[in-house]
């Protein structure tokens, strides 16, 4: 059985660890509030872009674009997939990274020719350990998403797509559905389904628009902005989910530390009481022995 000094050292170690987990919880909660504010700012952006794309389809419903699935009867898309994988730069966030990486591995089993574009040091290190080839790594801090970085990622992905190297592009990240159940999500970025942007009321009359220099050029620029905005939203959403998962993990760690401290305190009191009882017994035995010697004299 450990002595009181060993137990006290163990209690001190657990309390020091608990201070760290509490500090990480507070830091993550602050980052989460800021990230949520940024996420809320991106929501209207998508809504207005979708409105503009719908407006283009109202004016030119038969427009042909490489960013949309080919019409029915055409050859199906069966080329290589491109997958943008968003992870964090570090762990200590529960199953946040593992859920996304598990989804990527399942995709690789189904489509072995999938090319990975990775954001986050955790994902990069994971694929390197597994000897899974990475097409490109974006060496940006996952905890600091910006629109400029989203544009750079979008530019790299669209360059491969426009050159015909990729037939489909997916983004795999953790979606902040709510504060209790963030979940790993796989979303197809390109190509789009036409009915995704068709207006709900096809029979309604709409004003005609003129497009300069052409409707195809306008649609191309709008689609690029839409993909950039979606990537930015995915980066911010992933960052929110990371902080939320880390808060949950640190809170669980703090609760476990409380349980360990309660057990160690009980053990310490028992060992200390046992030591006191032992000392009292030894003193009483010594006093009894002295009385016996004096009586014998």
Question: Could you describe the 3D structure shown?
Answer:
With 297 residues, the protein is of the alpha/beta class. It has two domains: 59 residues; 233 residues, ATP synthase, F1 complex, gamma subunit (Pyruvate Kinase, Chain: A, domain 1), CATH 3.40.1380. The protein has five helices and five strands. The chain has a five-stranded mixed beta sheet with strand order 3-2-1-4-5, sandwiched between helices. Helix 3 links the parallel strand 2 and strand 3. Helix 1 runs antiparallel to helix 5 and helix 4 crosses helix 5. The longest helix is centred in the last third of the chain and has 82 residues. The radius of gyration is 31 Å and the shape is elongated. The two termini are 42 Å apart. About 2% of the residues have low confidence.
What percentage of amino acids are in beta strands? 5-15%
Counting DSSP H or I runs of 4 or more residues, the number of helices is: 5
Which strand order spans the largest sheet, edge to edge or round the barrel? 3-2-1-4-5
Tell me, rounded to a whole number, the average pLDDT. 78
Q: Short summary of the structure?
A:
The protein is of the alpha/beta class and 297 residues long.
Can you give keywords for this protein?
297 residues; alpha/beta; 60% helix; 10% strand
Secondary structure elements and pairings:
Elements: H1 4-59, E1 81-86, H2 96-110, E2 115-119, H3 121-129, E3 136-138, H4 147-162, E4 168-175, E5 183-190, H5 215-296
Parallel strand pairs: 1-2, 1-4, 2-3
Antiparallel strand pairs: 4-5
